[in-house]
What does this fold into?
Amino acid sequence: MKDVTLLIQGKINDECFNLWIENYKEWNVVVSIWDDEDLSKYKIPKKWKVVLSSYPKKRFMKHGNLDYQIITTINALRNTNNTFVIKVRADEYWSNLNLVYELMMNNDEKIISSSMFFRKFGLYDFHCGDKVLAGKKENIELMFNIAYNIAKEGVLDTKVPETYLGLGYLVGKKEILFDDKFVLSLNNKNAKFDRQSAIDAIKSASKAIKKNFDSILINQNKLEIEEINKKLDHCSKIVEYCIGYNKLVEKYKNRIDINDEPYMRKHFEIVDINKLKPYIATRNFGDERGRVWHRDDFDNKAEHCLETLK
It folds into this structure.
């Protein structure tokens, strides 16, 4: 495995990290962790490289730990010289990474992604599985650098971290133009706006304006100038609303249809994590269930995850 680096990043879990040390001591390994970790309790192989990062003073993600994952991964990649990279987490453990390596060699222009959280198409957009990510260093680097840029812009209306990674890679490969039109389309993929709704709004506004003008003309000798001005001001606001609404309809009319499936199939391949047993994987539901651990028992189908793209 001279041409591949095993990149272990994130917060350390004692059991998992010791398994990495025990079973992958002969691999080229870069450990990218935070500078508050106590490494004195581990027998880290001499050939391994350890990269320490400081926590960011200002986070650029309001939810999840995607920003933390990006920081430690990018810092590790800067200390990696091999052609290929397999990225995993320090609080998880996977056996049989030789299978990932073989799949990567047979698909060396694709990103190899774990079946765990590689969601079925149509569920979430650009949703790869980030439990295991493997490929050419330049491609993994491209994915995380573009994901970093997109996340920092703060323009996506999503709380799904994997979307940033999958989308980041496709933007980096120039499959997708990440412009205002694309952002509008992705953020409002399910919004329904049509020309008829604009016409109906204008008709309703026209009736309201006509009612106000009729009132002025009929009662012109009775109404004070202040009252007329109020009615005219009300008419003006209705017109402003119609103009704004019509522009919104026109804006949404020009949206593009987003279908991530052909792009994901072209640039990704999946490794079924149940072929990497024994393993330890974790997730945080962010609710009363809290953190949950999977030990060889993750059900791809029950979790709406794909096992392969073939």
Q: What stands out?
A: The beta strands are 4-9, 29-34, 49-53, 84-89, 93-94, 111-114, 133-136, 268-271, 279-284, 291-294.
